[in-house]
Design brief:
The protein contains eleven helices and no strands. The protein is mainly α. The protein folds into two domains: 69 residues, Arc Repressor Mutant, subunit A; 114 residues, no CATH class. Helix 7 packs across helix 8 and helix 9 packs across helix 10. The longest helix is centred in the C-terminal third of the chain and has 25 residues. The radius of gyration is 19 Å and the shape is elongated.
């Protein structure tokens, strides 16, 4: 996992992934609730999924559900931590022929893209609900992307000071966030790479292209 984005999901909520409940992290019941919540929200939307509906689908009473997740916002944040946006390393090397600074940036971008493809169902849910102006999803999503962008900005300042000097790290971070989101939207809409087996290759290719464009001048 790249240093730039590790732990980003926990930063969104400011709480541990355990939410409001007392159950130990990773408990079977908690994981089952989150998986059912993701399925229901994907089908009905966030606003269309009531805590009562979720409790019924999970075979719990409402009081038991609130023991694990005291509010819908905490539930959505816990789905975020459990299901997505905790980037994993790309399973193949980005390359060895490029300069180290270029390769490192490409690896960070590939990490992010692969992690988004791995949790595509969740990202589709968040983007769709935010576009429909669902208040909870929009609020959580805004915090997520703010944290995500800040992490990239910090990485640029630390590892690519040349970019910070040339264009300002915050501007570079905004551009890279827009690129990553744009690639995901193109994939999700079927414009590029319908084949799941090619998603890692797509992530690596696009990451290399961006890193090469932003490579230090000779």
């Amino acid at each position: 996992m790249s240093d730039a984005v590790a732990g980003g999901a926990e930063a969104v909520s400011g709480r541990s992934p355990e939410g409001g409940g007392d159950a130990p992290e990773g408990s079977a019941t908690r994981r089952r609730i989150l998986r059912i919540a993701l399925t229901l929200m994907s089908q009905r939307g966030v606003s269309g999924t009531s805590m009562r509906d979720l409790a019924s689908a999970a075979g719990l009473n409402v009081a038991s559900l609130y023991h694990y997740f005291p509010s819908k916002r905490e539930l959505l944040e816990s789905v975020l931590v459990e299901e997505g946006f905790v980037p994993v390393e790309a399973p193949v090397p980005v390359g060895t022929d490029a300069p180290e600074s270029e390769t490192n940036l490409a690896q960070v971008l590939a990490d992010i893209l692969v992690s988004m493809f791995d949790v595509e169902e969740f990202v589709r849910l968040m983007v769709g609900e935010a576009m429909r102006e669902e208040a909870t999803a929009r609020s959580v999503g805004a915090e997520l992307f703010s944290s995500f962008q800040a992490a990239i900005e910090d990485w640029v300042r630390t590892h690519r000071p040349d970019l910070d000097e040339r264009a300002d790290a915050s501007a570079v971070a905004r551009m890279l966030c827009a690129m990553v989101v744009g690639i995901f939207v193109l994939h999700a809409s079927g414009v590029i790479s319908d084949d799941e087996d090619d998603l890692t290759a797509l992530a690596v290719q696009r990451a290399r292209e961006a890193a090469h464009i932003l490579s230090p001048p000779e």
